[in-house]
Specification:
Structural class: alpha+beta
Bound molecules: 2'-deoxycytidine-5'-triphosphate
Number of strands: 24
Strand order of the largest sheet: 7-8-1-10-11-9
Strand content: 15-25%
Largest sheet: 6 strands, mixed
Radius of gyration: 32 Å
Length: 705
């Protein structure tokens, strides 16, 4: 809930522009023969002719409504033209509508700060444009006023019976003896009328608009006179508008809060709120909400128009109503793959066109259990850091689903029911990509950007299947994080609306995929938050190709810097201690310049043992994780590639060759970890370790302890 600034004398000029029956207009532009005919766009679905999602104004006259199905619409309006939403991957393809919305945004954004609020809605802050007009070319001095502006509806403007409505509007716009705020609104009327005409000329789409001193009032006004009209809210008319406005029509009051105001406080219109002092509202609903309610009753809202032309998130979803509910894991996986493919395409084109990257992948589902007392339980939404590449998104989304399902039905339910009829059904699935941030300007290459993020909060050796582990995304310097930059989502209709970040899920397979990188020599692959980011060249097309050579140079330079810094600190000790050094291993191996910030694993294999010590080393973050695992190969050769583990870059190292001096070269906290892990009692401080008392002894199968 936004907390409003108590500004009662707001002199901004804000417009809310809303396209008329938008999907219908997009389809009519494609098929001009549909223009002027009662038309509706139906969702892909054979049942009863599919659900109507957009209805033309001609069809509305016959009583056709969005809640109807195609068959019902035909009953009330036999001549209605039903157009199906384009379909791709077995689901609605909204790209055409999104792109059409973008065309409109690009025109509207020419006049002031522009916020794309949904697929077909935009807020504009026209204050500067209005002030400039008032100073240079005020409406009062205009001899003729455009026809479109004269058709405006000015709330509170009383017409005498039989008087010329347009003449009244002209007089209002031309007034000299009025306050600065009304004069600014008069400028707003002219600017918005001009913009709407421009949109029509360039796109053939009509839109309606509300013009007021804040977003809340502008939004309320834009829907009052549709289609292709504009409505103005002078400050003197605010009370009149709100007095009769049903409380549930107000943004944020359509749900529980609105119901409580009606039932508990007897508030039926926004104006009814005026009777309560601020303290009373705060007492009942808390400080922020109480103040917000007090303000909206007076038409006060300090919410700013955000300068944002691009969506804050991308989503791809599909519903599976009634008998179409998904009842097996493979069926869910099939659809998840389709959704992820679409999502991947969209985030890649966002990266390519807008140089923006998404950081969070979220899975939402709606589900039911057929035999459950706890029928209120919702399928939990799950998020994890987003890895680029369709296969990775599909894999992660499926893992998120499985984690959600485990929580929803319980581990036992998932295991025992497997692929068979399961007692649960999924009625809606969606995946979304959020936390979309621009690659910082000044970052000359995308590779460098990834490089900057490699200070991971994850170790590469996280426990497998670490579901629900908390993790934090570290954004690179210069990239904003925090709630101001990711305010409440006003996400486009028909896209996914994201709840706040829910539980983070660690990747079940924290693989480094080095082999994959080799196969894709032009791909960029960097550890980001413990996950590998792969971006194929085809996805990055133009933007990446230009940068590749430079990226390689940047990374090699960065790696060099790291090495010299590290060496600077440790140099003296290295010299003294010869080559038996983990750092030397790291230095001597550079399979790929892009790998510099990937975790390198050095596996010290205990001869004859079936367990080995594995050390994951993050050069940039200087973090290290230690674990035991079964050896894949026990060649015992120093510095040999581990052949048994194709997925990871691994090194086998004779454990006998490691003595305390090697461990001494590691950062102290890592030394502590090793000491603690190896055996706290057996470890001797500084060079007092006995020759016969080697790490391998602790793993020896014959060792008794
Ligand atoms: N939409 C959708 N499903 C919904 C609501 C809307 O797919 N439940 C799509 C189709 C609409 C578009 O979003 O054309 C914009 O929605 P609006 O609510 O703005 O409605 P329209 O633009 O269709 O009509 P209006 O002129 O009343 O704004």
């Amino acid at each position: 809930m936004p907390v409003a600034k108590p500004e009662s004398s707001d002199s901004r000029v804000i417009a809310h522009v809303d396209m008329d029956c938008f999907y219908v207009q997009v389809e009519q532009r494609k098929k001009p023969q549909l223009r002027g005919l009662p038309t509706a766009v139906v969702q892909y679905n054979e049942w009863k002719g599919g659900a109507l999602i957009a209805v033309s104004y001609e069809a509305r006259k016959f009583g056709v409504k969005r809640s109807m199905r195609g068959a019902e619409a035909k009953e009330v309006c036999p001549e209605i033209q039903l157009v199906q939403v384009p379909v791709n991957r077995g689901k609605a393809d909204l790209n055409g509508y999104r792109n059409a919305g973008s065309e409109v945004v690009s025109i509207l954004s020419r006049s002031g700060r522009c916020e794309r609020a949904s697929i077909d809605e935009v807020y504009l802050d026209l204050t500067d444009a209005a002030e400039t007009m008032l100073a240079e070319n005020p409406p009062q001095s205009l001899e003729t006023i455009d026809e479109e502006a004269l058709k405006s509806h000015i709330l509170g403007l009383n017409y005498e019976d039989g008087s010329d409505v347009k003449e009244n509007v002209r007089k209002w716009i031309n007034r000299h003896n009025t306050d600065h705020r009304d004069k600014l609104l008069a400028c707003g009327i002219l600017i918005v009328a001009e913009l709407r005409m421009q949109v029509f000329k360039e796109t053939e789409f009509t839109c309606s608009a509300g013009i007021a001193h804040n977003k809340m009032l502008a939004k309320l006004a834009s829907g009052m006179n549709k289609p292709a009209q504009q409505t103005v809210v002078p400050s003197a008319s605010v009370n009149g508008l709100l007095n009769t406005l049903p409380i549930r029509k107000m943004k944020h009051l359509g749900g529980k809060l609105g119901i409580s105001l009606q039932n508990d406080m007897g508030v039926n219109t926004v104006g009814d709120l005026l009777q309560f002092p601020e303290e009373k509202l705060q007492e009942r609903y808390g400080i922020n909400t109480g103040t917000w309610l007090w303000n909206i009753a007076r038409g006060i809202s300090g919410e700013e128009v955000e300068g944002r032309l691009l969506p804050k998130s991308h989503g791809s979803g599909k519903t599976f109503p009634g008998p179409r509910a998904l009842k097996t894991v493979p069926a869910v996986q099939h659809w998840l793959n389709q959704l992820c493919e679409e999502l991947s395409e969209r985030i890649c084109s966002d990266l390519d066109q807008n140089k923006r990257m998404a950081h969070t992948l979220t899975l939402h589902a709606r589900a039911y259990k057929s035999s459950d007392s706890d029928s209120q339980k919702k399928f939990p939404s799950k998020s994890c850091p987003l890895r680029y590449g369709t296969a990775k998104i599909q894999e992660d989304a499926f893992n998120l689903f499985q984690a959600g399902l485990r929580e929803y039905v319980g581990f036992y339910g998932v295991k025992t029911q497997g692929n068979h009829h399961s007692g649960w059904g999924i009625t809606s699935l969606s995946v979304s990509a959020s936390k979309i941030v621009p690659i910082p300007s000044g970052t000359c290459s995308i590779a460098k950007y990834f490089h900057g993020q490699s200070t991971s909060h994850f170790s590469s050796m996280q426990p497998l299947d670490n579901f629900n582990a908390e993790a934090t995304v570290s954004l690179p310097p210069g990239v904003y994080s925090g709630s101001e930059c990711y305010p409440e989502v006003n996400s486009p209709k028909a896209e996914v609306d994201f709840p706040k970040e829910e539980s983070w899920i660690a990747d079940t397979v924290p693989d480094l995929d080095l082999q994959e990188q080799k196969d894709l020599p032009c791909s960029l692959s960097k550890m980001q938050d413990g996950f590998t980011q792969d971006i194929s060249p085809s996805l990055l097309s133009g933007c990446l190709k230009q940068n590749q050579i430079k990226q390689q140079r940047d990374i090699t330079k960065d790696e060099g810097r790291f090495r010299s810094e590290y060496k600077g600190r440790k140099g003296k000790r290295l010299k003294d201690k010869g080559t038996a050094s983990i750092l030397e291993l790291f230095k001597s191996y550079n399979p790929n310049p892009f790998d510099s910030s990937l975790s390198q694993e050095f596996k010290k294999t205990a001869e004859g043992s079936d367990t080995r010590l594995t050390i994951g080393f993050e050069p940039k973050g200087h973090s290290l994780a230690v674990g035991k695992e079964k050896p894949m190969n026990s060649s015992g050769s120093s510095y040999s590639r581990d052949e048994g583990d194709g997925r990871r870059e691994a090194w086998s190292y004779k454990i006998d060759e490691i003595d305390q001096s090697v461990v001494d070269e590691l950062p102290p906290e890592i030394q502590d970890e090793i000491k603690a892990w190896v055996h706290p009692h057996k470890w001797r401080p500084n060079n007092t370790v006995e020759r016969g008392c080697k790490i391998s002894h602790y793993f020896s199968p014959t060792k008794k302890s």
